[in-house]
Amino acid sequence: MGRMTHVLTALAWPYANGPRHIGHVAGFGVPADVFARYMRMRGHDVLMVSGTDEHGTPILVQADSEGLKPAEAAAKYNRIIVEDLDALGLSYDLFTRTTTGNHYKTVQELFSTLYGNGYILQQKTLGAISPSTGRTLPDRYIEGTCPHCGFDSARGDQCDNCGRQLDPTDLIDPKSRINGETPKFVEEDHFFLDLPAFADALNAWLDTRTGWRTNVVRFTKNLLDDLQPRPISRDLDWGVPIPLDGWADRRDKRLYVWFDAVIGYLSATIEWARRSGDPDAWQRWWRDPEAVSYYFMGKDNIVFHSEIWPAMLLGANGEGAKGGEPGGLGRLNLPTEVVSSEFLTMEGRQFSSSRRVVIYVRDFLERYSPDALRYYICAAGPENQDSDFTWAEFLRRNNDELVAGWGNLVNRSIAMAAKNFGAVPEPGELERVDRDLLEATRASFDAVGDLIGQNKVRAAIGEAMKTVAAANKYLADTAPWKMKEDPKRQGTVLFTVLQAVSDLKTVMSPFLPHSSQKVHELLGGEGVFAPMPRIEEVADLDEGGATDGPYPILTGDYSDVPKWESVPLVPGTPLDKPVPVFAKLDPSIVDEEIERLNS
Ligand SMILES: [Zn+2]
């Protein structure tokens, strides 16, 4: 990717039925932000979008349990999630919601195009009714035993134990959760996405994908061997209405939550463009054939991004087996790359909100800095295999690597220069050892950047930390604190190490933006170095959605980011005694946190 291009960075949509735990941001939130920040520094026109996923049964169940209306519950958790992602410094251009009028319109537009092209089938299927009232029994009010894992309180649309999507008819011994009676199943019409009509087109498209993680390609190819029409409507009173005569006004039928949620990537881009004052600007990321799109998600979500969303786009473009014409939005780009992460476990256990094996992002950031968490995630996150978060490892990574490595380099070098020179010293002639260090820090731009570009964040930050170690070794070997009688050489050494620190603050900034901003200021820099998102209260752009009043979005101005390159330090720039960039943690936090987790 040599030239400037439009880069869509699309992050999976967190579900708004509770606060998010650190597993959610470890898999794709932070890695995607690293990618977006780096791409911006390389001069690309990046758009990073997502939002909260607010339809479907789990929202209704959560709202019931809190005595709230669904819209109130969704709004409550949308706000909490927005605040957490902001605190972590995730640089969204737009983080919105699936209950906006703009989203409803976009979803219905895509449905209508798919329907018009013949890719949505209307089929008879068995729906549940209550024998005593004769009314439709929504999926979430049916409970029974999961046919896959034997869990005895699986719901009619999914099993909370094994996570599989279900139909009410799949349940063994189904019962109404309202009055315990056995539901009666009657034939009803529902809509299905005709996935088999995309088998050839998906296969051909997958063959053109290079550089994908092998687990994603293998998984997707396997799926293509057995494509079935997939239901896209449900017996539900909370969701996007079906835009067809005779259906739009029905309160008991809605589009299935997954169908509307994947369209969020497109609707969020459109909303961003409309809010930016240039309503057609979304097309640069979706219709320009040179634009690229990277989708970030956990492994449980691969199917939606590598198979179903591409199938929906093919259908909307008229490019499946039944042909057709592009709809009102024109021909849309399929994903360039699907970047899936594995799972983060917690002290050897699966995260589980219900069993309280959980660390919420908010609780974490109340006690520790966002960059401490970001460092852990980048260095030890579940990139290629499941990884386990332990407090002992968090302590070790923070104290031995972040504080003793990068933080120590920054503070020692700036403190020595401030004490002895009060400024960035004027260097004399560089010796071999000085040139070697500066060559290493300059080389780290390419080495680290290439790895981030391939979404190898663990290796990328490892490479950056190797350069930090080289700079610390340089400081130990040259020992400028022993050069009191040779101020010229001392100035040269300190200049050299400060130049290395300056280069490294740039290299570190996609991973650790908060501390790179601090280092920038400690080196006498002014203004914004690593831009941060901000929360804005906005009103819905359109009628017809389900937001109840103004709501917060995450957005930001990232147009003025520094370039991904070494910038020469200016000798004479005043330096003050530095404040520590990172906090060393007391080992007692390990026991405290484990106790908190078990209490
Ligand atoms: Zn199950």
TrEMBL record:
Subcellular location: Cytoplasm
Catalysed conversion reaction: tRNA(Met) + L-methionine + ATP = L-methionyl-tRNA(Met) + AMP + diphosphate
Domain called Methionyl-tRNA synthetase anticodon-binding: residue spans: 424-547
EC category: ligase
Binding site for Zn(2+): 146, 149, 159, 162
EC number in record: 6.1.1.10
Cofactor, free-text remark: Binds 1 zinc ion per subunit.
Binding site for ATP: 353
Origin: domain of life: Bacteria
Short motif 'KMSKS' region, span: 350-354
Keywords, comma-separated and alphabetical: Aminoacyl-tRNA synthetase, ATP-binding, Cytoplasm, Ligase, Metal-binding, Nucleotide-binding, Protein biosynthesis, Zinc
Cofactor: Zn(2+)
InterPro entries in UniProt: Anticodon_Met, Met-tRNA_ligase_1, Met-tRNA_synth, Methionyl/Leucyl_tRNA_Synth, MetRS_core, MetRS_Zn, Rossmann-like_a/b/a_fold, tRNAsynth_Ia_anticodon-bd
Domain Methionyl/Leucyl tRNA synthetase: 8-413
Assigned GO CC terms: cytosol
SUPFAM superfamilies attached to this UniProt entry: Anticodon-binding domain of a subclass of class I aminoacyl-tRNA synthetases, Methionyl-tRNA synthetase (MetRS), Zn-domain, Nucleotidylyl transferase
'HIGH' region (motif): residue ranges: 14-24
Listed GO MF terms: ATP binding; metal ion binding; methionine-tRNA ligase activity
PANTHER family: METHIONINE--TRNA LIGASE (PTHR45765), METHIONINE--TRNA LIGASE, CYTOPLASMIC (PTHR45765:SF1)
Free-text function comment from the UniProt entry: Is required not only for elongation of protein synthesis but also for the initiation of all mRNA translation through initiator tRNA(fMet) aminoacylation.
Family of this protein: Belongs to the class-I aminoacyl-tRNA synthetase family. MetG type 1 subfamily.
Quaternary context: Monomer.
Protein name in the entry: Methionine--tRNA ligase
Organism: Glycomyces terrestris
Lineage: Bacteria, Bacillati, Actinomycetota, Actinomycetes, Glycomycetales
